[in-house]
Amino acid sequence: MTAVLPDPAIAGRDPIQPEGAGVGVFALEDWFTPFATHVESLPADRSMALFASIRGWVDALEVETLASALTGGTADARVATLARSAGHSKHAVRRATKRAEAVHQNPVLATKLRTGALTTEQVDAIADAAAKSDGSAAADGQLIADVEASPVDQARVIVKRWMNDREDPDQTEAKYDKQRRLRGLRRFATKDGLEAITAAGDSASIEEAWNRLTQDADLRYRLDGGRDLPAGSHKTSHPQRMFDAFIGRITGHITNDESGHTTPAPRANAGRPTVMVATTLNPATGEISGAELAGGGRLPPSVLDRMMCNADIIAAAFDTNGEILWQGRKIRSATAAQFKALVARDGGCVLCGAHYLRCDAHHLMPWHAPGRGETNVDQMALLCDSCHHIVHDQKLTLERAAPAARKPGHNAAETTDPDSRTDKADPAPDRQSIRWHTRPATPNETPPPRPTRC
Length: 454
Known about the structure:
By secondary structure, the protein is of the alpha+beta class. The protein folds into 3 domains: 8-169, no CATH class; 202-264, no CATH class; 276-445, no CATH class. It is built from 17 helices and 13 strands. It has helices at residues 8-11, 28-40, 44-67, 75-85, 90-105, 108-115, 120-132, 136-139, 141-148, 155-165, 169-181, 203-223, 238-251, 301-307, 336-346, 385-393, 429-432; strands spanning 16-18, 24-26, 184-189, 195-200, 253-255, 262-264, 275-281, 288-293, 313-317, 359-363, 380-384, 396-401, 435-440. The strands form 6 sheets. A 3-stranded mixed sheet has the order 8-7-9, sandwiched between helices. Strands 1-2 form a two-stranded antiparallel ribbon. β7 (275-281) and β8 (288-293) form a beta hairpin. The longest helix is centred in the N-terminal third of the chain and has 24 residues, at 44-67. It is globular and about 60 Å long.
């Protein structure tokens, strides 16, 4: 969208007006009052689009200014000082510093931010990966294209997969060993006066513990009405249910909010896997490689070997094929095997990246819509409760988007790292190429208005 400029008589003036010896103040009122007056006459949707356009310009100018300071040995300190002078918090200063470093490595990021091709959140996701990959992520044109072609909420999922695919197995093992050495539990009081416990350790152990708590919290959510209740109508929030699940696992009971009486804590059965490990299977050799926690980080081979001996741990290979995954209209709900296949493919909610244990198998063509959807893996996707409500309440549908075009050779301004070439074999092509978007549902895709699962 083209930005609306202020009155020409004002636009040509220097926005800094002298005030005292060497001190200047911005005459912001002169610049923005005409703009604000114009915005008030626009529909809300056009105003919000205009705000997003202007925000992109301002963010791009700021990050380019910070990136220009990255020239000497004290560059980081200089950038941090500049960011603090803009009123940023400590957290925002760290983010601005990473963003500036990524733009310094690849100015194309600032250009895409200015034009609206990338949002600040998407640039931050790339910048985080660049900080962990010696700048490779900022120089990888294919990664940038993939993030650009996907909804904002999927940026960190795409970046995480990019990092996983490039992690050396020896580094994975070393990282796991370090996590085990540094594991621990501590108790402290928060600034709000709450008592807290934190557990830090290896990803596999934390994943299993977190998944058990998520299953218990999800059971309480379903017992209280689940998705049949309107969004926001539940007595407890998801974080509160997770706390109750944690207390229930430790003590065997939880405290009711109003009465103060304790009740037995509900515990989920083993219907869903405790830990899902997504892997790549070589059909020729039968070798399993590239193991990672579904929606999470890489697993070292030693940990995968131990998991494969545990009945509570289920590993799903990407190219596992079986007729049970295609049920047609024989059944409405996804089977356990189908759910595992969806977890292996999607990792979590395809719209926001929420953990797979908070997701349901959503029919792209609803089962009871005029189009008569089928319970097949290639016609379903994982959606968390929140996104599920949005899709149904707003009469939307999901569709796969074509993957970003693979370029045989990127522009030098976009790609400078020879190790970031995209003509290498993709370790998980089926999953990596899937991108999801929402669009308005057609009458054929719209089920009757009644509270039910898709």
